[in-house]
Design brief:
Elements: E1 3-8, H1 16-24, E2 29-32, E3 41-45, E4 48-52, E5 65-68, E6 73-74, H2 76-88, E7 96-99, E8 103-104, H3 107-120, H4 132-141, H5 153-175, H6 182-197, E9 201-202, H7 204-213, E10 218-221, H8 247-253, E11 259-267, E12 270-272, H9 285-293, E13 306-308, E14 310-311, H10 312-322, E15 326-330, E16 340-349, E17 352-354, H11 361-365, E18 368-375, H12 392-405, E19 408-413, E20 421-423
Helix pairs in contact: 3-4
Length: 424
Amino acid sequence: MPATVVLGTQWGDEGKGKLTDILAGEMDMVVRYQGGHNAGHTLVVGERTFAVRLVPSGILHPEVRNVIGNGVVVDPTILLGELATLEAQGIATDNLVVSGNAHLILPYHREMDVLFERHLGKAKLGTTKGGIGPAYADKALRVGLRVQDLLDPKIFREKLEVVLANKAAILAKVYNRLAPTADEICDLYLGEIAPALEPRIVDSVNLVHEALEAGQDVMFEGAQATFLDLDHGTYPFVTSSNPVAGGVCAGAGIGPRHVDRVIGVTKAYLTRVGSGPFPTELFDEVGDGLIDRGHEFGTNTGRRRRAGWFDLVMLRHAVRLNSLTDIFVTKLDILSPLETIKVCVAYDVDGTRVEHMPYHQSDLHKAVPVYEELPGWGTDIGDARTLAELPAAARDYVLFLGERAGVAVSYVGVGPERLQTVAL
C-alpha cells in the first residue's frame, strides 16, 4: 500500500507542482488533501505552461486519477472555470473527481473575507480574499455546506437559509452590506453548478482506500506549506488548514501507517507572500535579483513575493514536523549568478544562539539570522541532469543543506521545465 506525500517546507511557492507533475507519471492516483484555490501550482512541460489551483497536479497525465479530497474547500465556480481552461488547452479532465464531503465556498464567504481583511487595516493577514478562511470557519462551526449537498436541493436550501440569516445580519450590521439572497445562490449552485459537478462527486475515502488496498501508488499533494499550517505555522499569518503531513490523515481519510514516503519541497532560497515574520528577508539588490530571476510573483494574485536567504532553522523544524524522508531542492539555477551565498544556520535571540524554531512569536519577530557563507558557481546549470554534471560549488551547496537539516536530497531543480531536474 505505497503512499507518498509531497508538501512544502517553507511558506509556499517552493515548486511543489513541478515535483508532483514529475512523480505523477509513476502514480495511479493524485489526491489534494487540504487548502483551496488560494494555492497556485505552475506546471511547465516543454514550451507549454499550465497553472492549476484546485485541480491536482496529476491532471496532465490522462491515465492518473485525480481526487479533490474531503479536506479541501471548493469554490465550484473556480473549479469549473479551471477545468474549462485546461480543456481549452487540450487537457482531458474526465479523470478528476471531487469528494462529496469537501466543503463549499459560497458567495458570502468571499464577501466576508474581503471585508474582514479590509477591517483589519494595518494588521491585515494578507489573505487571497477567496473565501477560504470563512469557509473553514463555517466548517468548524458546523454550519458549512458540503459538495454532496448539491445533490439534494431541499437539504441545500434548508442549510443555506439557516446560515444565510446569520451572515446577512453580520454583513448588514457590521459592514453595511447586503448579502446575496437564498434564491440567487440556489439559482447558481443548484441550477448551473450542480448539474456540471454531479458526475464528478464521489465517496473519496472509499476510492482512495480501494486504490491503496489494490497496491496502487497514491500521491497526496499538499497546498501552501509547513509554516503556513494553522497549528504549526507563523500564526496568525497562516492558512486555515493543515498542510503538514499529519493533515493527510484528516484531509484524505487515511491512517498514518499507509504513508511510507514524505517528500519536502524546499526552494534554494526563501520567499514569502503577504505579512508575517521573515528573519532572512533581503531588502537589497540581491533580494531584487532573486525575485526577478525567479519570477517571484503569485500564480493567483500576481503579488510580488518577499525574498531572502535559505533558512536551515526552518528546514530542520519542517523535517521534524513532517517526518520527512527526503527533500527536493528547487530553483537552484536562480542562485547561479551570485559570487557568495549565505545560509542561515541559527538565530540570535537577545544574545543567545538558537538552532530551533522559537515557540514564542516575540522571539521569532526579533530573531537575527546567523549566517554561514558558501561560494557561488557562476555558471548556468540548466542542462545538468546528474549530480556529477553540476559544478562542485552547486553540489556542495545542495549537500550542505541536506546534511545540516538531517535529511537526504533526492531531487534538484535546475530550471522550470519538467526535464530540468537532477535525480540524486
